[in-house]
Amino acid sequence: MSMAGNLRKVTSLGGVGGLRKVARLARRRPRVDLSHPARSPLGSSVVNCVTYREGVRTPERGDLVDTVERVRKSREGFVWLGLHEPTDQEFAGIAELFDLHPLAVEDAIEAHQRPKLERYGETLFAVFKTVCYVEHEELTATSEVVNTGEIMVFVGADFVITVRHGRHGSLGPLREELESDPGQLAKGPSAVLHALADHVVDDYLTVTDAVQADIDQVETDVFSETGARADPGRIYQLKRELLELKRAVVPLSRPLEDLATRPIRAVDPEIQAYFRDVSDHLLRAKEQIAAFDELLNSILQAHLAQVTVAQNEDMRKITAWAAIVAVPTMVCGVYGMNFDHMPELHWRYGYGMVIGVISVACLALYRGFRRSGWL
Per residue in 247-297, pLDDT tens? Predict the structure, then answer.
């Protein structure tokens, strides 16, 4: 019998009582492996539901309520339930079965939460922000660089419930990786929580490395010969995307510190050392983001300085040409006043002399400006 199949029916009925009502129907269903798809092909939010004993995936018979009761009665193993963007109705029966706090349930359904760690009785509720790098051929002022999602985790003594929001961050590969290490998985639900945190933080480092390539490209363009003509919108866009990444990474420091240092009943003491390692990786990601922010500020200031220098050079050229043009303008202005008695007005060679004087004066000004670098 497939527990995932039972649970799909449960979410449609919206209560624990519905779990037992569909047990007979569920026994006739073949098992459907839902590890990798974002959502079930049957349209449910259930991605997978598996029982582990001594770190080994164990097939179960009976409905989910019976399975949970057997796990709790034997005090061996735990149930890992994976969901993707469940609705209120889909999550109602699950929340009742596992006695989840209404506030945590509301956060898990609504999403858009900051990374945090909260305790509700014997249950631990954690929120992680997931990130992925959006591939693009060329960075523009409107390019999306970082895409974010969320993973909410309920951890109890004998269960783990993961609720994922967003189109990226599938946990199927992570589940397979954990199943290949039964010794670690045998440490209980807290091992799954650590694996999730480690997976999320590793993605942070992957994204920061990819963002660095974009920053390097912008830096190269700004300091090139045509740097003053570079589009500042790309720099602002990178800063906006970096801010989104910062909102995902920075608030996670406190939850990881609590998991690594404070005694928590739902977390195996042996796992706390692993959380310290994850916290170190997060610190590296935070330092990289802070360095990127400072670097982008410097690149932006350098670009603005280049624009100012280019404008000053243009103004100097305009001023130099205006000074050169001022000579013939002044002479022509004087001899255009139409007085009868003006020096050399009726002289035969007066016109040639004036043109010669204007030419010599303009040439002298031009050479002077060229020597000073104005032209």
Answer: 999 999 999 999 988 888 888 888 888 999 999 999 999 999 999 999 998
Closest by CA to 197, choosing from 110, 259, 149, is 259
Question: What pLDDT, on the 0 to 100 scale, is given for residue 167?
Answer: 81
CB 203 within 8 A of CB 169: yes
Which residues is 162 bridged to in the sheet? Answer: 82, 153
Alpha helices in the chain (DSSP H): 3-13, 16-21, 23-26, 64-74, 88-97, 102-110, 172-179, 182-185, 189-222, 232-249, 253-261, 269-334, 350-372
Q: Would you state the structure tokens that stand for residue 370, as one six-digit string? A: 């060229």
Q: How far apart are CA 90 and CA 291, in angstroms?
A: 43
How far apart (Å, rounded) are the C-alpha atoms in residues 232 and 3?
54
358 with 335: CB under 8 angstroms? Answer: no
Say if CB 155 and CB 296 are below 8 A apart: no
Q: Are 93 and 18 in contact (CB under 8 A)?
A: yes
In whole angstroms, give the CA distance from residue 301 to residue 294.
11
Give the three-class secondary structure for 199: helix
pLDDT digits (tens, 9 = 90+) for 226-252: 656 677 888 888 888 899 999 999 999
Which pairing describes strands 56-58 and 116-120: parallel, antiparallel, or unpaired? unpaired
Residue 83 backbone zone (phi > 0: left; psi -120 to 50: alpha; other: beta): beta
Query: pTM of this prediction?
Result: 0.74
Cα 304 to Cα 302: distance, rounded to the nearest angstrom: 5
129, two tokens: 């922000």
As a whole number of Å, the end-to-end CA separation of the chain is 86
**Any idea which residue has 């004036």 for tokens?**
354
CA distances from 250 to 88, 201, 241, 296 (A): 30, 11, 14, 18
Alpha-carbon span 215 to 238, nearest angstrom? 8
The DSSP 8-state label assigned to residue 139 in this structure reads -
Which of 211, 224, 213 is CA-nearest to residue 303?
224
Report CA dihedral (95, 99, 103, 104) to the nearest 10 degrees: -70
